[in-house]
């Protein structure tokens, strides 16, 4: 699981830390904590505070380590232009797999151009690449099979267009169930979704595009989709042909689903496609502005549905709705508050008092009880 991410000089962030290993001492909603790591989190902030950029920061690793679907246009204006003395963005990821820990640091000047990278496994430096200092170092023998057959006769110029770590991934046989394989499997199975009206907009996990309605039909999930909508009080009779799903009215008239679906209902269709048809085992799911077109009651119902999914190891969502700040849903350490200066802190960090389960933390937040500038 992703334990911690530290980022510098990326988009609107001069320096930001997401610490999912910073677990508070709460005796409620304890199932959210897995192996000492927060597995369910919600990023909240005002408009233009950088909530979407938090998701992009988390998924930056997907850009250069995988061949999965990417949203490169979202990574334009890559650097923070306020920091004129820094010429690159810096990322430091810490992952935890059972008792093992992997730390991966790198610097980029653009989304696909890595100029430095280091990989530590249980505090041991296993890989280093530094273009400027002409450094290439590998100590990965214990994590791959037949390392003696791996070609190590290369120079820094060979990695202008590919990271050294990705090269290792593609040219070695990783030890099955070993720590390096677990690391790559985690990154390969990360999924980012933007739930706005852009169709099926995603990054990571897989490749290619899907027609939402046709994919639901091909998976024989139309009736399941109808039941899914009813869970959210959308009562429609759905029928199909080979290509389309229709809403059938009491008078027998049939209308294409998308012709009468609201913005929120279209997003529910997208979520159903991913949650019930496409994904099998997602390591980290981030949904950007997941409730953009939902009223509070529906937002809460969808959130509770996502929180219970056993297909998702780790979940992050962004929202601007303070109505979702509730100890019945999550815990204070699961709410990451982003201020207009691009800083992030957990709700549990910015309280001057111990927060208990019975506290109305939304009311406290709206009353500006929490000290966070």
UniProtKB/TrEMBL annotation:
Gene3D superfamilies, per database record: P-loop containing nucleotide triphosphate hydrolases
Pfam families with a match to the protein in the record: AAA_21
InterPro entries registered for this protein in UniProt: ATPase_AAA_core, Bact_Antivir_Def_Nuclease, P-loop_NTPase
Positions of the ATPase AAA-type core domain: 43-326
Bilayer-crossing regions: none
Superkingdom of the organism of origin: Bacteria
Keywords: ATP-binding, Nucleotide-binding
Signal peptide (residue range): none
Record carries keyword ATP-binding: yes
One GO MF term: ATP hydrolysis activity
Name assigned to this protein: ATP-binding protein
Source organism (scientific name): Leptotrichia rugosa
Taxonomy of the source species: Bacteria, Fusobacteriati, Fusobacteriota, Fusobacteriia, Fusobacteriales
